[in-house]
Amino acid sequence: VINPNNPTGALYSNELLKGIIEIAREHNLVIMADEVYDKVLYDGVKHTALASLSTDVLTLTFNSLSKSYRSCGYRAGWLVVSGDKKQAKDYIEGLNMLSSMRLCANVPGQSAIQTALGGYQTIHDLVAEGGRLRRQRDIAYELLTAIPGVSCVKPQAALYMFPRLDPKVYPIEDDKQFILELLEETRVLLVQGSGFNYPDNQHFRVVFLPHEDDLRDAIGRVAKFLEAYRKRHARP
């Protein structure tokens, strides 16, 4: 469960999270909760840790310095095991053995985790009104939704949005080929929806991390490509 979500930027409601927990409880499943974007939140929304909503369902929660703390190069993260651990002793022992023998953790990088978690949370400045990430989200959303035939749900969290192309305007049969053609013509790299196992050919992922000028340039190139695509495939 990736919450906040990549590629959509969605933030899951408590009701939805409780529904996931109920399914796991019913079928005796282990929940793996990827929450690396838990502090990258916009418009005053709140993130709920999935593990906080149950005491009986075995839950593995993942986090890292990579996203909220913008320290990808540290390769430092952590795993929290919560819920009913009685039935998972061998599993937890295997995790400990794997982490000791095979994962080759970045020990110096791990020393930064306590400082990061306990220190001033600079991410709050970036996602607040007027903050760089929030401005970039708003700019990307406005520019993309201004393109004819493009719609998008405005992200509440994370660093991504997942626009949809109207199939009546953009009759795409192979979204991978479509994205490759866009890359070759514009030098802008996006990711097709099928790359995330999405079941149609009408979506693509945008990362709004680049600075404002770069975003305007890149989305402007995408808009020109889509304009030419519309003309080529216009119905008589």
Q: Can you tell me about this structure?
A:
Helix 5 (132-145) packs parallel to helix 7 (212-232). The chain is 39% helix and 12% strand. It has helices at 14-27, 89-101, 107-118, 123-127, 132-145, 175-186, 212-232; strands at 31-34, 59-64, 77-82, 150-151, 160-161, 164-165, 191-192, 204-207. The strands form three sheets. A three-stranded mixed beta sheet has the order 1-2-3, with no helix packed on it. A three-stranded antiparallel beta sheet has the order 5-8-7. The protein folds into two domains: 14-121, Aspartate Aminotransferase, domain 2 (3-Layer(aba) Sandwich); 129-233, Alpha-Beta Complex (Aspartate Aminotransferase, domain 1), CATH 3.90.1150.10. It has 236 residues and is of the alpha+beta class. It contains seven helices and eight strands; from the N terminus they run αβββααααβββαββα.
Structure class: alpha+beta
Unreliable residue runs: none
Largest sheet: 3 strands, mixed
Could you give the order of the helices and strands?
HEEEHHHHEEEHEEH
Fourth-tier CATH superfamily name of the largest domain: Type I PLP-dependent aspartate aminotransferase-like (Major domain)
Query: What is the straight-line distance between the termini?
Result: 45 Å
| Share of helical residues | 25-40%
| Radius of gyration using CA atoms only | 20 Å
Q: How many beta-strand segments?
A: 8
Which CATH-level-2 architecture of the largest domain?
3-Layer(aba) Sandwich
Within the largest sheet, what's the order of strands?
A: 1-2-3
Could you say how many structural domains there are in total? 2
> Which term fits the overall shape?
globular
Q: For this structure, what is the CATH class of the largest domain?
A: Alpha Beta
